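Anyone up for a design puzzle?
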């Protein structure tokens, strides 16, 4: 059993992760409509990763005999003025998620919930990677906004192909 306060906030975070999933789907669809297959594939992959994060959290709650409550999520933004805007939004989203993850770690520690603290360690590491990836992508997209082929080449060269992280928590339903 995990601390109730932590479980309650983790349920909120499940909604945040599913919201990020939907937002990344909207970004992917935007790029797909522009015939930018590399950027579309990148964001479709990011969407699945966010869903996976939510399912890891679901699995943790189930494993600790806590209630899982999927909160309502807001509609994704799908109206972008240019190719830079979705990446800018994604970077801000990742920074927000980092703050949310840090708050969960804080709660786990305040509650002396060592299992929850250990569970969250992977997410802390993951957020460092996510913010760095989006920061780099934003720099490239901003610099090359008038040449989408340069953006596509960068994504094809630099993104994707990562193997599954064997240290990642298990996902419910996997």
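Challenge accepted. My sequence:
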């Amino acid at each position: 059993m995990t601390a109730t306060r932590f479980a309650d906030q983790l349920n909120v975070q499940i909604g945040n992760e599913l919201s990020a999933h939907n937002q990344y789907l909207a970004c992917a669809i935007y790029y797909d409509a522009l015939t930018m297959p590399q950027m579309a594939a990148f964001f479709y992959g990011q969407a699945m990763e966010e869903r996976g994060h939510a399912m890891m959290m679901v699995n943790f709650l189930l494993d600790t005999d806590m209630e899982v409550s999927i909160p309502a999520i807001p509609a994704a933004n799908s109206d972008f003025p240019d190719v830079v805007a979705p990446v800018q939004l994604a970077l801000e989203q990742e920074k927000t998620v980092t703050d949310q993850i840090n708050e969960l770690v804080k709660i786990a520690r305040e509650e002396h919930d060592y299992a929850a603290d250990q569970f969250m360690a992977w997410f802390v590491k993951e957020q460092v990677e996510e913010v760095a990836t989006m920061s780099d992508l934003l720099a490239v997209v901003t610099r090359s906004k008038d040449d989408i082929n340069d953006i596509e080449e960068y994504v094809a060269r630099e993104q994707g192909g990562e193997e599954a992280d064997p240290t990642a928590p298990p996902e419910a339903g996997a």
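A detail worth pointing out: The helical segments are 4-33, 37-63, 85-110, 114-143, 148-158.
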